[in-house]
From TrEMBL:
Record-level GO cellular component terms: cytosol
The protein, known as: GTP cyclohydrolase-2
EC number: 3.5.4.25
Organism: Kocuria rhizophila
Residues at which Zn(2+) binds: C83, C94, C96
Presence of the UniProt keyword Metal-binding in the record: yes
InterPro entries attached to this UniProt entry: GTP_cyclohydro_II (IPR032677), RibA (IPR000926), RibA-like_sf (IPR036144)
Amino acid sequence: MHGLSEERGPAEGHRPATAPAPGPVLEHSEPVTIPTDHGSFSVIGWRVPEGHGAPATEHVSLTAPPPPGEETLPPLVRLHSECLTGDVLGSWRCDCGPQLQLALERIHRHGGTVLYLRNHEGRGIGLVNKLRAYKLQDAGADTVDANTMLGLPAEARDYTAAARILTAMNLTSIRLLTNNPDKISKLEALGITVVEAVTHQVPARTENVDYLRVKRDRMHHHLTHLTPGENS
């Protein structure tokens, strides 16, 4: 396909440490430099077949080199789930937008990769269902109960595509920017070794502090900056 390479052609000169995960051919673009507010990144677009005849999903990786003195550390990686409302519109209902900006800043400063994962909207339930869940939250449900009231799982994200991309980039032993132990266990089940979980917290707002408390109390995210009665 024009402008895309196949999985057997390693990205950015890396060679996979292990054989690629079985499945249809993984395609990627050639790396290009994209300047941002946080600095310049080497950016690759990835096209990952979903299986069962579903259309392939496109993801993107943004990579920066480590500074002197940090070259021997396991690479720093952030898996960021797509969030149109938070990442693009700047919604304060979640912490996604600030987490993405913090990830780009930290990855540019310390080196590593931000992998932006599509089809993860609303923890995998999709944009329309996420907005339906917002309506239930406005009526008093929390984020977990709103999903289950719609007959949907509280957490539906699949990290198979992430593991395939990380393997193709030779990122199979990583330091992961995350507060979410479920993300770690799912990645490790797919063959990615998380040698260190690096806490990735952003300040709470009045508009999302309840959302963050549900992450901490019901989904077991490691959030240490929330205290009883905190509302900003």
